[in-house]
Amino acid sequence: MKRTAVVLLCTLLAAPAFAVSDPTELLPDRTQEQRAEALGHQLRCLVCQNESVEESNADLARDLRRIIRQRVVTGDSDQQVIDWMVARYGNFIRLRPPFNAITLGLWGAPAIALLAGVAAALIAARRRPSAPAPLTDAERRRLADLLKS
Amino acid sequence: MTALPRRALLLAPLGAAAIGGTGFWLLLNRMSEGSYDPHGVPSMLIGKPLPTFSLPGQPPSQGFSSADIVAARRPTLINFFASWCIPCVQEAPALVLLKRQGTPIWGIAYKDKSDATAEFLQQNGDPYTRIARDEPGNTAIDFGLYGVPESYVIDKSGIVRWRWAGGLSEDILHQSLAPLLQSLA
């Protein structure tokens, strides 16, 4: 029982396994550290490009994590930190690209797909042959006979 | 269903496949030519002034600052390199050639130990006017560097005109760099 409790406690205490392998990287202030992690998750590691700065083990990602934390501690807003990164690496560093003329197609794609789907559905509905004519008396009688037997 | 939509239904996917195929073919073609790199990070510095920095020197060279480069008032190549980087070894002959052609090259050793840099220069030649050291890598980040080697062309008034991420070769020297340097002279 005691052992189970210890194992359970350890599981609960285990921090999520991010690339931050060096505990000295972490900020002592919990809320600041959380903000820094959230920011790191929004930024692309320029070396291993489908990982975020927070997840990557690359040297450059570690440097960028350190800079994020320095800027968070000195009181930069989230937007200021992102802007600082974009000024150096362009919008490419943002894992979530901003909405602008270039990304119009990207962000507009779901709406375009929805409209195309609605249009296709409307066309299909219009094409569908009209409902069949109601049954004649003879047919109705025959149907009743068939259902009875 | 009439004949026309039926034919359209058959041709639409074929047309889409043809357009997509041409697109992919162009993409792959440009990738193999080297004129397109899907992993390339475009530089934000082009047309902007050189970032301000001041770095210590790699002995016996003095360190330098961005102001020193601007004060020289010449089109200059800034080259980030490291002894641990293989393309840096490969680009060394191109840099030596560029120096011989009369372009000043200012080197910045990125995240490298002083002894290792010295050994690298001894083995691969030293084409640099001056060499500074960026061990923490902060100046490199201000340049938007994402790997070594990286080279930047600065014009007479200190504006960044060109960036090359990766090793320089004689081909790049002849095709891109020489015409650019000529136009800046």
The 3D shape of chain B can be described as: elongated
User: What is the CATH superfamily classification of the largest domain in chain A?
Assistant: Cytochrome C biogenesis protein
Please summarize the sheet with the most strands of chain B: 5 strands, mixed
User: Secondary-structure element order of chain A, as H and E?
Assistant: HHHHHH
Count of strand segments of chain B: 7
What average pLDDT do the residues of chain B reach? 92
| Range of helix content of chain B | 40-55%
Q: Going across the biggest sheet of chain B, name each strand in turn.
A: 5-4-3-6-7
Using the coordinates shown, work out and report the CATH topology of the largest domain in chain B. Answer: Glutaredoxin
C-alpha termini separation of chain B: 70 Å
N-end to C-end Cα span of chain A:
70 Å
At the fourth level of CATH, the homologous superfamily of the largest domain in chain B is Glutaredoxin
What is the count of DSSP helices of chain A, taking H or I runs of 4+ residues? 6
* Rg calculated over all Cα atoms of chain A: 30 Å
Task: Indicate the percent of residues in helices of chain A.
Answer: 55-70%
Q: What is the domain tally of chain A?
A: 2
In the predicted model, the low-confidence regions of chain B spanning at least 5 consecutive residues are: none
Succession of helices and strands of chain B: HEEHEHEHEHEEH
Regions with little confidence, pLDDT below 50 for 5+ residues of chain A: none
